[in-house]
Every structure is written in C-alpha cells, then in structure tokens.
Amino acid sequence: MFCDRRLPHAGACRAGGRRGIIVGAATRRIVALARQANLQASEVSDSDTRLRTKARRKTQRPKLHKVILVNDDFTPREFVVAVLKAVFRVNEDQSYRIMMTAHRRGVCVVAVYTKDVAETKASEGTEAGKAAGYPLMFTTEPEE
Ligand code: TYC
C-alpha cells in the first residue's frame, strides 16, 4: 500500500516510516494511470479506468402504421359506423365523425398502431364489408 497525499484518504496513514493507506482497486488504478500520464490523480476520473463492454443503446420505438378508411359509393353509412365501433373500439360519435370524414374527403385516418396490429385491424374491417357484400376498404401505411 502507498500513500498519495493528493488523494482523499480512504484509510489512515501510518505516521513515520513507510506511510500506508488502505485504498480500493479503483483508486490504485487511478493513481497508476495518473503516474503514467504524469497527471494529478484528481485529473483522472474513475470512468477512465473502466472498460465499457457493451454499447448502451436506447430501446427503439416501433414505427407506427396508420389505418385508413377509404370511401366508396355503396357501403351504407350505418354499416361503416358499426364496423368502426366493432374493430377500432371507438364510440358512436367518433365512429360517425370518422365515417363522415372519409365520405366527404375520400379517406380518413382511423388510428395508428404497430405494423402487425394495423394490418390485422385493416383486414378485419375490409373482411367485415366483404362478408356483407360491400366494397368497404381499409388500407395501412407507415407513419412518416
Ligand atoms: N359513401 C358511403 C355512402 O354514401 C358511406 C361511406 C362512408 C362508405 C365512408 C365508405 O369509407 C366509407 N353510403
């Protein structure tokens, strides 16, 4: 053990003779590095001595996909409203507004989900129309 007066003491120095101090392995590494580089130990931080074995990466959020309701001239309004309520769990009011937006503008974004969920909901809606003999259509597209 050695004593470096520039470091905060982690243990007691022995008075006289060989001065000793009890320090941990991290401190010893810091002092060794500082000596090598001719630096004050206080100029070397503990993080300089620890190897990072794994890059820390933030979890990436999955890209979201829009489900789009497409207007047509044949599917009854009430049927569209019923499908929206059943598949997308929206209430009567929201469902009516979505249907009317698609009716007036040609398309309406119903909701956004992860790719799998968006595609499943779109085909459920489209299939419900098909089963009843209507050309009702839902499509999906990735969000920018
Ligand atoms: N345009 C249809 C009608 O007038 C109603 C409708 C609305 C159909 C929206 C599809 O995505 C749609 N009966």
UniProtKB/TrEMBL annotation:
InterPro entries the record matches: ClpS, ClpS_core, Ribosomal_bL12_C/ClpS-like
Keyword Protease applies: yes
Top-level taxon of origin: Bacteria
Keyword Protease: yes
Residues of the Adaptor protein ClpS core domain: 61-139
Keywords from the UniProt entry: Hydrolase, Protease
Biological process according to GO: protein catabolic process; proteolysis
Role: Involved in the modulation of the specificity of the ClpAP-mediated ATP-dependent protein degradation.
Family under the similarity heading: Belongs to the ClpS family.
Protein name: ATP-dependent Clp protease adapter protein ClpS
Organism listed in the record: Nitratireductor mangrovi
Originating gene: clpS
